[in-house]
TrEMBL record:
Keyword Cytoplasm appears in the UniProt entry: no
Keywords of this entry: Aminotransferase, Pyridoxal phosphate, Transferase
InterPro entries: Aminotrans_3, Aminotrans_3_PPA_site, Dat, PyrdxlP-dep_Trfase, PyrdxlP-dep_Trfase_major, PyrdxlP-dep_Trfase_small
Positions of transmembrane segments: none
EC number: 2.6.1.76
Originating organism: Streptomyces guryensis
GO molecular function terms noted in the UniProt entry: diaminobutyrate-2-oxoglutarate transaminase activity; pyridoxal phosphate binding
Essential cofactor(s): pyridoxal 5'-phosphate
Pathway assigned in UniProt: Amine and polyamine biosynthesis; ectoine biosynthesis; L-ectoine from L-aspartate 4-semialdehyde: step 1/3
Protein name stated in the entry: Diaminobutyrate--2-oxoglutarate transaminase
Region (Disordered): 475-512
Length: 512
């Protein structure tokens, strides 16, 4: 890197630290200064290149600066069309709504209304909560442990890291750290029964709610896919009790999980869908789509100055169309399954990889204390080296064969996962960055390394991502424990040991 580039890089970071809020997050763990980007690749002011598996926290379905997005933006700019129109009708908005409705789950598009709100996902959540409370005349809300719905007051009420008397918190089913200690279909059944009991017990202390909000895959909660049958059960429970069901598809939408919308995996039709991130094609845009019989708002009941972002609508239309016409949801399902399978192999190599789970190109790897005890309530399987792909299968503490375990492990399983290791997860993130790979860390215990690559990632780039991640895990595990990591088996054929520099540059070109 040049001396000038390095000086510019360090100067910008120094001024950011001195002038920006202490609330900044990504900038603290990713000390880079992006100046150019294309597809999966970012180039920093210091000349370094990175493979970006953060993708704007899932916003960049087509990666950075995709040609169809840039062309759509240029077309609006060159046309002389107004860029700020409040909620007036425009050809750009009409095209966006038409394409959006074309992609909606069957059963919703024909009877739907759309509300443009403030440009962030939190704004859309706020609008959805206000909508169901207005439509039902009730105030309470059902939400789930581990949920994340945004940072504004109402969104925080529904999220797992805040509490409010108007929100009843329900258990979200998961295998690895099952709240009932059993996991699998049995754990999901118990979670559903808990929900029914809360609603039907007149002494539960939970009044009849205005709505239920859930994520088909909990993202910030640790990349936890909701079981399909449990999703159908929630739909039946809410329908039978006239409770509007709100699906938060802010991060899961637009092909991310292998379906255009994540609710499609279970075949349900929610009453309300909250959409943001990828629908704006990298620009700020958020909407609420809901059944027309809920549309009882008076004019002005929910407004916002920046509801009419024409550039975002044009970029969003281009993105939705490209994902649909090029079958990128199906591509995400296929490539995601392949990446999960390779990460399962990594979990069998390293005891510190407690669980691998995800759906499509929304992937999580939980890091645990490899020396910690497996015992007590709190885990659904045997505790380490596991996997979770939405099907309900996982492997635990013992390095068992994953395929054999699917058939051999009953629904009620003893044991507990090892303790989460957030320090190790942070170390893996740092080692990834050293190798030119950007990943996110999240989850309930801040111990889940998350991958959200663009849907346009190539097979070669996916291999480079996994190669760098595997090296980062190996190095972090060794340095974290002060001794070589316990490796369960020799590296397989997918782990090609090349010089570090070659791994760093592989697939690092500025392209799609």
């Amino acid at each position: 890197m040049s001396v000038t580039g390095r000086a510019a890089h360090e100067g910008i970071l120094r001024r950011q630290s001195a002038r920006e809020s202490a609330a900044r997050t990504y900038a603290r763990v990713l000390p880079i200064v992006p100046v150019r980007a294309r597809g999966l690749t970012i180039e920093g002011a210091d000349g370094r290149r990175y493979l970006d598996c953060l993708s704007g926290a899932g916003t960049l379905a087509l990666g950075h600066n995709h040609p169809v997005v840039l062309e759509a933006i240029r077309k609006v700019l060159d046309s002389g069309a107004p860029l700020h129109v409040l909620d007036l009708a425009t050809p750009v908005k009409d095209a966006f709504v038409t394409e959006l409705f074309r992609t909606l789950p069957r059963g919703l598009a024909d009877h739907a209304r759309v509300q443009f709100c403030g440009p962030a996902g939190s704004d859309a959540v706020e609008a959805a909560l206000k909508l169901v409370r207005t439509a039902t005349g009730r105030t309470g809300l059902l939400a789930f442990t581990g949920a994340y719905h945004g940072m504004t007051a109402g969104a925080l009420e529904a999220s797992g890291n805040a509490s409010d008397v108007r929100v009843a918190r329900l258990p979200f089913p998961q295998d690895y750290r099952c709240p009932f200690g059993v996991g699998g279909s049995r754990g999901a059944e118990l979670a559903a029964r808990w929900t029914e009991s809360v609603l039907d017990d007149p002494r539960s202390g939970v009044p009849h709610p205005a709505g239920m909000i859930l994520e088909p895959v909990q993202g910030e909660g640790g990349v936890i896919p909701a079981p399909d049958e449990w999703m159908r059960r929630m739909r039946r429970i809410t329908s039978a009790r006239s409770i509007p069901l709100i699906a938060d598809e802010v991060q899961t939408g637009v092909g991310r999980t292998g379906g255009f919308w994540a609710v499609e995996h279970s075949g349900i039709t929610p009453d309300v869908m909250v959409l943001s991130k990828a629908i704006g094609g990298s620009l700020p845009l958020a909407v609420v789509v809901y059944r027309d019989d809920l549309d009882v708002w008076e004019p002005g009941a929910h407004a916002g100055t920046f509801r009419g972002n024409q550039l975002a609508m044009a970029a969003g239309t281009a993105t939705l169309t490209y994902v649909r016409e090029n079958h990128l949801a199906e591509r995400a399902a296929t490539l995601g399954s392949r990446m999960l399978a390779q990460l399962h192999s990594l979990a069998r190599e390293f005891p510190c990889v407690g669980d691998v789970r995800g759906r499509g190109l929304m992937i999580g790897m939980e890091l645990v204390d490899a020396e910690g005890d497996c015992g007590g309530l709190g885990g659904g399987t045997f505790g380490g080296g596991g996997s979770r792909d939405g099907s309900g299968d996982s492997v635990g503490c013992e390095p068992l064969n994953h395929e054999a375990t699917q058939a051999a492990v009953p629904d009620s399983r003893p044991g507990s996962p090892r303790p989460a290791d957030p320090e190790l997860a942070a170390a893996v993130q740092r080692e990834c960055l050293r190798r030119g790979l950007i990943v996110e860390v999240g989850g309930r215990h801040a111990s889940v390394v998350r991958l959200l690559p663009p849907l346009t990632i190539s097979d070669e780039q996916a291999a480079a991502v996994l190669d760098r991640l595997a090296d980062a895990v190996e190095t972090a595990a060794r340095d974290h424990s002060g001794r070589p990591p316990g490796i369960r088996r020799p590296h397989g054929p997918d782990r090609q040991h090349r010089p570090h520099g070659e791994r760093t540059e592989r697939a690092g070109h500025l392209g799609n």
